[in-house]
């Protein structure tokens, strides 16, 4: 279960592999120029948010995005290894295709961690960040966000774009869904 605490989430900026629709997994790809610009463009939305600390995946694309947030927001930054993207084994560097949906449904991929193992690892990382009284900003990956959706049910799933800050509010009652909203939108 995801710790019942409000938080912000930011998927890293664009990489060349995002642009080519290649599965990155744990291949350590840096931001491209557009990704750097996206990270800086996300800053104004977060400037008025009551974020107290930034936690991030140590993979370069997320870490570079988090460093931009740290510089702009003047907040402490800490890496959490468990926030890394899934290890997709032999599929890293290949087009993100139907294999990924099958992997999420439990099909094995050579050399990859299973979706269940990945989701549990990501949940550990998320809960480690959420142990901070916060609210915190978590900078990680699209796949890591699947664990948020799996463990904090929402009304609908989202395919979150690069560098769109999201605010998450736990439900007031157990049987209600979490609430999420793009930061800076009504």
What is the number of helices?
6
Dominant shape: globular
Task: Could you tell me the CATH topology label.
Answer: Rossmann fold
Q: Which CATH class applies here?
A: Alpha Beta
What's the SSE blueprint?
Layout: E1 7-11, H1 16-19, H2 33-46, E2 53-56, H3 60-73, E3 77-79, H4 98-104, H5 115-130, E4 136-140, H6 142-151, E5 166-169, E6 179-182
Parallel strand pairs: 1-4, 2-3, 2-4
Antiparallel strand pairs: 1-5, 5-6
Helix pairs in contact: 2-3, 5-6
Question: How would you characterize the overall build of this protein?
Answer:
This protein is an alpha/beta fold. It has 6 helices and 6 strands. The chain has helices at 16-19, 33-46, 60-73, 98-104, 115-130, 142-151; strands at residues 7-11, 53-56, 77-79, 136-140, 166-169, 179-182. Strand 2 (53-56), helix 3 and strand 3 (77-79) form a beta-alpha-beta unit. Helix 2 runs parallel beside helix 3 and helix 5 (115-130) packs across helix 6 (142-151). The longest helix is centred in the middle third of the chain and has 16 residues, at 115-130. It is globular, with a radius of gyration of 16 Å. The model has no long low-confidence stretch (mean pLDDT 94).
């Amino acid at each position: 279960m995801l710790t019942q605490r409000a938080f912000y989430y930011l998927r890293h900026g664009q990489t060349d592999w995002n642009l080519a629709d290649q599965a990155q997994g744990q291949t350590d790809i840096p931001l491209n120029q557009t990704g750097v610009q996206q990270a800086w463009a996300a800053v104004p939305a977060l400037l008025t948010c009551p974020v107290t600390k930034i936690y991030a995946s140590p993979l370069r694309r997320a870490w570079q995005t988090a460093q931009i947030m740290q510089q702009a927001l003047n907040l402490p930054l800490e890496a959490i290894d468990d926030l890394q993207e899934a290890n997709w084994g032999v599929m890293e560097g290949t087009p993100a295709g139907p294999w990924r949906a099958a992997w999420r449904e439990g099909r094995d991929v050579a050399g990859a961690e299973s979706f269940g193992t990945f989701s549990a690892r990501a949940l550990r990382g998320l809960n480690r960040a959420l142990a901070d009284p916060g609210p915190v900003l978590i900078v990680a990956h699209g796949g890591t966000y699947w664990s948020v959706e799996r463990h904090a049910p929402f009304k609908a799933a989202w395919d979150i774009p690069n560098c769109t800050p999201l605010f998450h509010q736990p439900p007031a009652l157990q049987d209600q869904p979490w609430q999420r909203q793009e930061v800076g939108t009504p």
